[in-house]
Amino acid sequence: MESSMSMSAAASVVVRTCVPAAVMLPLSPSFTRPALRTTGRGFRCRCSSATKDSAVVYSRLLDDALFRSAEVIQWESGKSMNAIATAQGIQIRRRCRPRYPSEGTGAERAVPRNILEQIIWDKEVEVAQRKARTPLCEVKASAALAPPPRDFVGALRAACRRNAVPALVAEVKKASPSKGLLRDHFDPVEIARTYEKNGAACLSILTDEKHFQGSFENLEAVRSSGINCPLLCKEFVIDAWQIYYARSKGADAVLLIAAVLPDIDITYFLRVCKSLGMAALVEVHDERELDRVLKIDGVELIGINNRSLGTFEVDTANTNMLLEKRGDIINEKRIQVVSESGLFTPDDVAYVQKAGVFAVLVGESLLTQEDPGRAIAGLFGKELLP
Q1: Separation between Cα atoms, residue 181 and residue 187, nearest integer Å
Q2: Which residue numbers delimit the Indole-3-glycerol phosphate synthase domain (predicted)?
């Protein structure tokens, strides 16, 4: 991804790479560029020449608080986005290369620190290729024509009240990097239907192809099948294009991962979600990430992932520890918490419920059983009311 940030006509142009996503795009489909002022600064991006929207696209001037943020000021002064992200505790490096960075030899070859970094590097290439095939303007038009989004947070609240246990976000995924193939016979619509029948409040659909054998076609198929549960697009979001694309395929919510995204991008992506009527589940893994997210306006849902990014080991005590330390702030902000990963038994669910979560996101412990829908009763120790 390349972009240029320009001053007024009399100023020089600074060309950089790895810019914040927030300076790349307008905030909503209805945004129109205001007249440039000689004292202001405009932000522009130059898209691939292969796309229809290859013209320079201006977004906002600095009178928007988003563009007065510390990240933009640091970026303008010459600091790289990787350096800015590192200062926020983000260890995932962004490569911004035109092809898969793990390919090639010598200086062209890079070695990822962990599986998440590899996924993000691959995702950068994938998104660039998708945007070249389907420009943002086309994706926005498709998103505008999609049926209205369903109330993801409302569905979780209703299920929590109905069953007196944390609401279930049941995951539809075929494989994972840590466990490999989870299910030989994989029919996403069939799995989604049995989840809904057995009390799932919402569904999470994996859309990453390279590492999880998922697809946006699976998301679209589940949405068009008549299933009523709101859908979370479980994607590694690094670009607003992905959010619009997910909406066009029927997603009601998206996942935003704090371990990958600097604060400015989370803030911007939350605005995009709000403009589309979508929810955002902001995922954290540790105390530093949680503290960052709690300072960002507009967060309604926080997902606490119990899986270590470094070792991929799982410990549900992570949910309990973070809520013991920051539960008061979370409650004060009226943020709802979802516990993710490592939930296999009724005791696991009861443990995180006592810690203060109102929903759980579960996939592996359901998908590895013969009947994923009936496995829900085994997870909660009782049948859930749909």
Answers
A1: 14
A2: 116-377
Residue 77 CB neighbours (<10 A): 7
Distance of CA 67 to the CA centre of its chain: 22
Residue closest to 234 by CA, chosen among 372, 363, 141? 363
Q: What percent of the chain has pLDDT over 90?
A: 67
Q: Averaged over 252-264, what is the pLDDT?
A: 97
Residues 238 and 368 in one domain: yes
d(CA 246, CA 109): 31
pLDDT tops 50 at residue 35: no
The reported pTM is 0.85
Structural domain for 243, as ranges: 144-380
Residues 361 and 327: beta-carbon distance below 8 Å: no
Residue 257 domain flag: yes
Sheet strands (E) in the chain: 2-6, 13-17, 42-45, 57-61, 167-172, 175-176, 180-181, 202-206, 231-234, 253-257, 279-284, 301-305, 336-340, 359-362
Nearest to 244 by CA among 66, 26, 41, 62: 26
65 and 177 assigned to the same domain: no
The predicted structure's pLDDT at residue 313? 86
Question: What residues pair up with 302 in beta bridges, in sequence order?
Answer: 282, 337
Number of compact structural domains in the chain:
2
Q: Is residue 218 part of a domain?
A: yes
Residues in the chain: 386
Secondary structure (DSSP) of 233-302: EE----SHHHHHHHHHTT-SEEEEETTTS-HHHHHHHHHHHHHHT-EEEEEE-SHHHHHHHHTSTT--EE
Angle between helices 240-248 and 115-133 (to 10 degrees): 70
Confidence of residue 248 (pLDDT cuts 50, 70, 90): very high
Burial class (CB in 10 A: 0-12, 13-18, 19+), 278: buried
Catalytic residues: 171, 173, 234, 283, 305, 340-341
Asked if the structure places residue 386 within a domain, the reply is no
Instruction: Band the pLDDT of 3: cuts 50, 70, 90.
Output: very low
- Quick one: 88 and 172 in the same domain? no
The CB density around residue 376, as the number of other CB atoms within 10 Å, is 24
